[in-house]
């Protein structure tokens, strides 16, 4: 399965965007928030986190500008009655941190205000996900601290800032500083100026 794509955003359409990866155009379905981010990044090289959804009659790529949104999307898919399109609609109603707060607070009324979410679906989301989502702030804090240290170490080793930033963006949330630097050394060894 495709985990992420790195390429240029060529076009943003109604509910999807077109990303060029080495001459191949991938159509990525995304939330309104991610599409807004993509619109601001037209023509730029970016990394898009991907969920590949396979059905008998279709293979659809869902794209996310950050891992937090992808993780929340995957969590929403675990809720009975929520499919990929509904999950994208929910994510279009707010940023992941705000939706996460509504779920953790058990705020069915707030969730019902999101696109395509009725009272029963809101209650089902809370029942399924409350207390089971990793706190986005905790993840971001831990990630930003270790990634800052990895970035600093790789820059001190003489790698170019652009290459380091691109590499660090691909690292998993739970990577240790040592593993990150080791992988960076292996991955970037040909990019020293």
Task: Give a short overview.
The protein is an alpha+beta fold. 49% of the residues lie in helices and 20% in strands. Residues 74-93, 109-128 form the Helix-hairpin-helix DNA-binding motif class domain.
Structure description:
- The protein is an alpha+beta fold and 193 residues long.
- The protein folds into 3 domains: 61 residues, OB fold (Dihydrolipoamide Acetyltransferase, E2P) (Beta Barrel), CATH 2.40.50.140; 63 residues, DNA polymerase, domain 1; 56 residues, Helicase, Ruva Protein, domain 3 (Orthogonal Bundle), CATH 1.10.8.
- Helices cover 49% and strands 20% of the residues.
- It contains 9 helices and 5 strands.
- It has a 5-stranded mixed barrel with strand order 1-2-3-5-4.
- A hairpin with a 2-residue loop joins strand 2 and strand 3.
- Helix 2 packs across helix 3, helix 7 packs antiparallel against helix 8 and helix 7 packs across helix 9.
- The longest helix is centred in the last third of the chain and has 21 residues.
- The protein is globular.
- The two termini are 34 Å apart.
- The mean pLDDT is 85.
């Amino acid at each position: 399965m495709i985990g992420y794509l790195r390429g240029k955003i060529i076009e943003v359409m109604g509910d999807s965007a077109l990303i060029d990866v080495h001459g191949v155009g991938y159509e990525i379905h995304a939330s309104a928030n991610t599409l807004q981010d993509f619109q601001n990044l037209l023509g730029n090289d970016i990394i898009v986190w991907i969920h590949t959804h396979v059905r008998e009659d279709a293979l659809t790529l869902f794209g996310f500008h950050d891992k937090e949104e992808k993780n929340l999307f995957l969590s929403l898919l675990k809720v009975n009655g929520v499919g990929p399109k509904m999950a994208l609609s929910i994510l279009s109603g707010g940023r992941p941190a705000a939706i996460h707060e509504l779920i953790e607070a058990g705020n069915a009324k707030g969730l019902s205000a999101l696109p395509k979410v009725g009272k029963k679906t809101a209650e089902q989301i809370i029942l399924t996900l409350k207390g089971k989502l990793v706190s986005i702030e905790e993840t971001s804090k831990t990630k930003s601290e270790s990634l800052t240290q990895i970035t600093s170490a790789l820059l001190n080793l003489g790698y170019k800032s652009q290459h380091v930033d691109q590499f660090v963006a691909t690292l998993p949330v739970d990577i240790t500083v040592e593993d990150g630097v080791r992988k960076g050394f292996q991955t970037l060894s040909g990019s020293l100026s």
